[in-house]
Structure formats: structure tokens, C-alpha cells
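Field reference: sequence -> structure
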Amino acid sequence: MMQKICLTTRSRMFPVFVFSLGTLLCVGVASAQAPSSAALDKVLSQMDAAAAKFHSAQANFQWDQFERVVSSTDTQTGVIYFLRSGASTRMAADIQKYDDQPAKKIIVFMDGVLKFYQPQIDQMTVIHAGNKQDQFESYLALGFGGSGSDLKKNWNIAYQGMETIDGVQTAKLDLVSKIASDRNNVSHITIWVDPTRAISLKQIMYEPSGDSRTAYYRNIEYNKKISNSVFKIKTDSKTQVVEK
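Structure field:
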């Protein structure tokens, strides 16, 4: 039986991206044939070519978390960074505002460890991917350097046409996990991806509860130098560390 590492925090203040990644740590990988069409095959082939050229990306983000029960949406904004070195992917997110109010938080994933730091309370939450690091990184790259082959491996894909977002032609793809148990956490994910760069401009993650998480990525800088400093979190001996 595959061990699952899950982040169970459901606080409305907890960043949507951290909870999403924690959820994705519960997801396994299956191998099967994906539904095929000429248009979808073309998009996935473009993504394969683009993924081979992908080295880095930086973007401004907006993460909207909608909770159906209270009919409320929380919004977080900031800057996100992706850096690929060989087969390894690093990610850092600098959350700067929560519902238009200053709310500094930092998320870093590298070397199989996800760290979430809240400076206001000087607390670091640490999640270890363990032997699921490759699987974790495949989900992390969903829309940022991910290949079409990876999508076919892990998801049933429905091609929903081309749409223009912020002046960019994107392919709208709806993804359903090939593992039935995973759909208890995430019903499906819709991504709007620029297949020529393997970069997603918009993503919506749908839960069976009716909750959803929408991510927008704008002002994207592609394959430009990113300082290693963005992947370092400054703490001291007084920082409270919580292991998940």
C-alpha cells in the first residue's frame, strides 16, 4: 500500500497553494492511455517540446479560494518563481497580500521539502515529500514546465479549445485523475496553458464539496535568471518549526 503524506490544515488563512500541494502529496501516479484527438495531440506535442526548453519562470500570482458553504472568496497575491535544474524543480512563492491587506508569507519547495513560513508569528511548517518527490514535482510542474507526456501519464484529458488570456493563445484542458480515490479530494482541474512555453496562465482546482481554487499568473518572465536567494528562508533559533 502506498504511504500518503497529507496536509490536513483547512484554515481559511492557510495559503491555497500550500493546501493544494499538501493534497497533491496524497496523489499517486498511474499509467494508461489518455483520450486522443488531433488537436489535443498537437497541444501535448508542443508542451513536450517546450518542457525540454524550460529553465525558469517568474510571475505575479493571484490565488482565489472559494468556499461554497459560506459563499466567500479569499484572495492572496504575490510573486512566484520556478527553477529547473536537470530533473529537479524548485519553487518559491512570496505572498504579499491577503484580501488587499499586507500579509507576508513565504513558500519554498526544493530538495523534496516544502516549507511555509509565517513571519508574523515566526512559524515554519515543513512537509517532507520523501520517496514521493518525483510524483510531487510532476504535480508542482502542472502548467509550469510540465510536459504533455506527463499529463497523459497521470490524467484523463479533455481538450476544450483555444482561448486568449492576456493576449496569449492558450489551450484549455480539463484534467481528471486516473486514480479514483484521488477524485475524493480533487474532482478535476482545468488549466489554460500556453503550449509553446509550457506555462499556465490560469488554473482552477475543483473539490467534490463545491469549493474551488483559482490561480491567475500574469507578467510572466520566461527563462530569465532567478537568484538563488529567493529559495532561502531566513529564520533563527526562536522560529517555531512544525513538521507535517
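Note: Confidence is low (pLDDT under 50) at residues 1-14, 24-35.
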